Amino acid sequence: MTSLTPTAGADRSLSRLPSLTGLRWIAAMLVFGFHVGTMRIIVEPEFKVVVDQLFTLGLSGVQFFFVLSGFVLVWSARPQDTKWAFWRRRVAKIYPNHVLMWAVALLVGLWFADPVNPSAAVQNLLLVQAWNPTPGYFYSVNTVSWSLSCELFFYFCLPFVLPALRRASSWMLWTVVVAVPLVILALWPGQLLVPEESRWWFTQIFPLVRSTEFWMGVAAAELMRRGHWRGPALPLASLVFVVTWAVAGEWIRAELWAALLSAAYILVITAAARADVRGLPSPWRSRPLVWLGEVSFAFYLVHVFVMVTILRLTGDYGVGFTGWTGPLVAVGFLLLNLLLAWLLYRWVETPMMRLLAPSRKRPAPAGDPSATGDRAAVTPRQRAADGVDRCGHAVAPAGDQAADSGTAGIDAGTRRSG
């Protein structure tokens, strides 16, 4: 069995799998580019063709985040953790940002005199809207929060599944990993059993369907914890992803590329995690990329709302910009959303995680002062050793490595090109 504990030369800073944090930003940029294209911000033909070629499949970024979410939550899980502590940490991660953006989106909607369905607004606030196939519900208020609704369902299920997961044989876990791309393929004929008006919701939004990607990451993480994962190293995995992306965007039918990308994503995620654990080179752990990955959740929550609101105010929504104005506006939106995301991350997400998320304390020997239950006696180093840092990000449990798991959603479907 191959050990995945850090090598002697591995940097202690790698305990949070920074490569996965950096990859989060790459996925976020793909989704941002996809929305730049669908909002017709760039209409100059020679520029538009570049955006289309680069970001046609950008909507699959949410697929990456669902797979990554399952991977890191299992990778960082500790046996002594309780269900309630786990749920509290996850809610503390996603809910403060969500509630703030929910309120802002409602206020701006009233300003524009947009009709607000009270039932849809309440369902969105409670993050249950993805279960409702009614048009105007699952994309209500801050539209991107549909995927938070899916993530909340994943978070609820995982603590119940973990005990069985630990007992499952490796061949059963491999079956899950291999089956998910096949399930994605099967959804295309399967959706014919659903009323036509609900097919988009069924294949793109329905939490039970979208959970397949999450469970793929769960199974891969457990295999990797056991040292039973077999996959290419990071350079080859990255090359496989790039080739798959390029080929799928040009020649592969919509129902096929989503299945192929799910396989490419799991290869990159596991290879990047293994590179960090073993202290191997990785282009994804540079300091700028890691910072961008840290703010990617907040970026996701604000980017569509900000772009739509500004374009509506200027009268340019759906019209687009000619010449170099289009690319400049897109870059301006990127920078503005980054600024707002940093403010949200700095002043809402991080402090609320510190306030609301429970600590996970290491069992202390008898007579150890830290066993008194006084939270103040638990140092940041002790908390990090026990699976969570001061901001509530997952770090390595003893003998393992883990990653920040702020992977909650990005607004996009993942299985058809539209």
From TrEMBL:
GO terms for biological process: lipopolysaccharide biosynthetic process. Residues 19-346 form the Acyltransferase domain. The chain crosses the membrane at residues 22-42, 54-75, 95-113, 137-158, 170-188, 233-252, 258-277, 289-311, 323-345. Keywords: Acyltransferase, Hydrolase, Membrane, Transferase, Transmembrane, Transmembrane helix. Coiled coil: none annotated. InterPro entries: Acyl_transf_3_dom, Acyltransferase_3. Signal peptide: none annotated. GO terms for molecular function: acyltransferase activity, transferring groups other than amino-acyl groups; hydrolase activity. Residues 383-392 have a biased composition (Basic and acidic residues). GO terms for cellular component: membrane. Residues 359-418 are annotated as: Disordered. This is Peptidoglycan/LPS O-acetylase OafA/YrhL, contains acyltransferase and SGNH-hydrolase domains. It comes from Micromonospora inyonensis.
